[in-house]
Design goal:
The protein has 416 residues and is α/β, with parallel strands linked by helices. It has 2 domains: 278 residues, Crotonobetainyl-coa:carnitine coa-transferase, domain 1 (Rossmann fold, 3-Layer(aba) Sandwich); 83 residues, formyl-coa transferase, domain 3. The protein has 17 helices and 13 strands. The strands form 4 sheets. A 6-stranded parallel beta sheet has the order 5-2-1-6-7-8, sandwiched between helices. A 3-stranded antiparallel beta sheet has the order 9-10-11, with helices on one face. Strands 3-4 form a two-stranded antiparallel sheet. The two termini are 32 Å apart. The mean pLDDT is 96.
Amino acid sequence: MSDKPSALGHLKVLDLSRVLAGPWCTQMLADLGADVVKVERPVAGDDTRHWGPPFLKDVQGKDTTQASYYTATNRNKRSITLDLAHPDGQAIIRKMALQSDILVENFKVGGLKPYGLDYESLKAINPRLIYCSVTGFGQDGPYAERAGYDLMIQAMSGMMSITGRADGVPGGGPQRVGVALTDLFTGVYACSAILAALEVRNRTGVGQQIDMALLDVGMAILANQAAGFLNTGKVPQRQGNSHPSLAPYQDFPTADGSMLLAIGNDGQFSRFCHAAGKPEWAADARYAGMAGRVTHRGTLIPAMEEVTRTRTTAQWISLLEDKAVPCGPINDLGQAFDDAQVKARHLVVNQPLSPVVAAQSAIESIASVASPLRLMATPPVLNRPPPALGEHTDEVLAELGLDSAQIAALRQTGVV
C-alpha cells in the first residue's frame, strides 16, 4: 500500500467482460486506481471461477470449490451479480454507464444491442463514455460472428507454427505458448487504447468505441517473425529455443541440467569465449559476426555444448554475471518465485479477505503477482483482493440510489 495518489483514482470502469482478455485489461486499470465494478451472472459468475484445478486452499489446506484462475485477473475490483437479460438488470447497467468513464465488454458482435447496451445506445445517454469491445475477430469481416479463443488464435495467426521443436526431431510439432498469450496481450493493448481514448476525451470531451480483436493482436505480436516474412516471402519454421536471427541465443546443457544464453551482440560473444577458455572462437571468421554465427550455428552450437557441459548452471552464472554476458537458469515457477531478484522486487502480494468473506469461504487470503507498472509518483494500488461473487452488490446498488427494499425486491426476482 502507498499513501501516494493513484494514477486513475478519478475514473469509474464498468466491467462487463469475463474470462481473460477483458478482465486483464480492467485489472490493469484497477491496479492504477480506477474504481472497477465487475458485473457477473447471478449464481454462476465469471466462467473462470470454476476453471480448476488448481483450486484455492482453505485454512486447513484443503481444496475449496473456488478456482485460482479467477484470482489472477480480478484483483482490486468490486463484484456485483446482475441478470442482463432482465429489463431491470438492463436499467441498472444504463444507470451505471451514465456514471462511468469506461465500459469494457466481450460479448459476441451485436450481443448487447437487443438489450439496449450497445455503444450507440449508451453513447446517447453518456457521450463521454469510452466503450471497449473485445472479440475474437473484430466488429467486421467474414469471421466477425465467430467465437474466438486464445488457442484458436495462436493456431490461426501462425504463432504455433513458430513455437516448439522442428518437425523430425523428438517432441517436434506445433505448440501453444504456456499461457494464453493473445488474451493477455489483447488486455494490454486494450488498456493502452483506453488510455489513448481518455487523452482524446480530455481534448474533445467526447468518448469513442474501441474495437479490439484477438486475431489482430495475434498477428501484431508476431513482431520480427512477421516482418521477416512480409519483407522476404520466406515462411519461418519452428526451431525450438534457438533464435532465427541471433546465435548463440538458446538453452545449453550443463553439468547438472541446463542454462540459457542470450548473446545479442559480438562483444558479448567475445567475452563469453574468453571466459569459457575458447578465445579462438571469437577470432574465427565464421563466428566473429552475428550473421556468420547464425549461418554456421550447425558447427558452433555443438562445440559450445561440449564446453557448457563442463560446469554446473550455477558455476556458469557466477562466471559470466560480472562480464555482461546474459546467462541464467531455466526455472520452474517454484524456483522463479524463490529467486532473490523476484523477492527484492516484491512481486508476490498476499491480500487478506474481509472477515465476513473469509468466514463464508474458509479462505483467509489470496496471493497474486504484483503489478509490474512501477510509477514512482502514482504507484499501483492494492485496495481489494479478488472479490467473492456478488460481494459488493448491495454497496454498488446503494450508490446508484436504490434503497434496501428495492435491492431486496431485485434479489427476490433473481435480477441480482
